[in-house]
Specification:
This protein is mainly α and 286 residues long. The protein contains eleven helices and four strands. A two-stranded antiparallel sheet has the order 1-2. A two-stranded antiparallel ribbon has the order 3-4.
C-alpha cells in the first residue's frame, strides 16, 4: 500500500459548496446549504477519526442519517447526498476539476491499494451506499484501479482490526513488511506474505494482513511474478552468468526496486530469489 499525501488546497467544505453550486435548481441548492453547518461537523469527525485510524467508529446509515445520531444531517436524503457525486462531481465542469485533481495524486498513476493497476477511478473508502454523507469528501475519495475498486465492493470495517489501509492516513513504508518465498516444486513459483515489523501494535499487524487479504495481493503479485520469472529464465539461459553473478544481478535489482518503494512486489521477488541458492544454481531453468 502506497501512502499519498493530500497536498492540494481543495478543502472539504469548498468541495461540497462547489458541487452544490453546480446544481441548476435553486430550491435544491438551498436544501444542501441548510445542512452545511452540520455537514462541516461530520466531515470534521472524519478527519479526526482518520488521523486516529478509527474510521470504523462511524455508524452505517442508509437514507437520511439516523435521527438523534451525532452524525445526523437532517433535510437531505441518501440519494441527495449520493447525487452530489454522481450528477455533480462526475458530470459538471467545476466539480469535475476536483475529481481530476484527486485522480492525479497517485504516484506514477499507480493504484495505491495494490501498486499494480493503473488509476482509472475514485474509490469511496467508506462506501457511498452506506455512508452517503461522504460521497464528495476528498478525504474519502481514493484514486485506484478498477480491480481494487470492484474487489472491495461495499465492504467496510466494524472493528478496528478489520480496517484496510487508508492511503491518506496510513503510512507503513518506512520498513519492509511484504516478503516472498521461492517455491521450488512442483514448479518454480513465488508466494507472497506479510511479516509486519515487531514494533507495530497487534491491531496494526492485523490491519496489514487484512489489507493484503482483502485485495487478494498474494494471488495478484504471484501472477506478476510469474511473468518476471519467465523473463529472467530467458535472460539467464542465454547468458554465461555463473551462480555468483546471477545472485549479484538479483541483489542489485532488489536494491533498485527498494529505492523506489520499500514494499513493492518486485523488491520482495528479487530479494527472495537472491537468497535462494537453489534458484541461483540452476533452479531458474525449471
Amino acid at each position: 500500500m502506497r501512502y499519498i499525501k493530500l497536498s492540494f488546497d481543495c478543502k472539504p467544505i469548498t468541495t461540497y459548496i462547489t458541487c452544490v453550486t453546480s446544481i441548476q435548481d435553486l430550491s435544491q441548492r438551498n436544501k444542501y446549504y441548510h445542512v452545511l453547518v452540520n455537514y462541516a461537523r461530520i466531515v470534521g469527525l472524519y478527519q479526526k477519526y482518520g488521523k486516529e485510524k478509527k474510521l470504523y467508529l462511524f455508524l452505517t446509515h442508509n437514507g437520511m442519517l439516523k435521527k438523534n445520531s451525532k452524525y445526523n444531517v437532517s433535510g437531505v436524503t441518501s440519494d441527495d447526498l449520493k447525487n452530489l457525486y454522481k450528477r455533480q462531481m462526475l458530470n459538471n465542469k467545476e466539480p469535475r476539476k476536483i475529481y481530476d485533481k484527486l485522480m492525479s495524486l497517485a504516484k506514477l498513476g499507480k493504484c495505491p491499494f495494490c501498486g499494480l493497476g493503473q488509476v482509472s477511478t475514485l474509490d469511496h473508502y467508506l462506501p457511498k451506499s452506506e455512508f452517503p454523507t461522504f460521497s464528495v469528501l476528498p478525504y474519502n475519495l481514493i484514486p485506484c484501479c478498477k480491480d481494487c475498486n470492484h474487489g472491495k465492493s461495499i465492504a467496510y470495517a466494524v472493528k478496528e482490526e478489520e480496517q484496510t489501509l487508508h492511503p491518506y492516513y496510513d503510512n507503513y513504508n518506512d520498513e519492509q513488511w511484504l516478503f516472498a518465498d521461492v517455491i521450488e516444486s512442483p514448479s518454480l513459483s513465488i508466494r507472497y506474505k506479510v511479516l509486519p515489523p515487531e514494533y507495530l501494535t497487534d491491531i496494526e499487524k492485523r490491519r496489514l494482513k487484512k489489507h493484503f487479504d482483502e485485495y487478494s495481493l498474494d494471488k495478484r503479485f504471484s501472477i506478476e511474478a510469474s511473468s518476471e520469472l519467465a523473463t529472467l529464465t530467458h535472460r539467464f539461459n542465454i547468458s554465461s552468468f555463473d551462480a555468483k553473478q546471477i545472485q549479484e544481478h538479483l541483489i542489485s535489482s532488489e536494491i533498485a526496486y527498494m529505492e523506489q518503494y520499500v514494499n513493492s512486489w518486485q523488491r520482495a521477488l528479487y530479494q527472495a530469489l537472491g537468497k535462494s541458492e537453489w534458484y541461483c544454481n540452476g533452479g531458474y531453468k525449471i
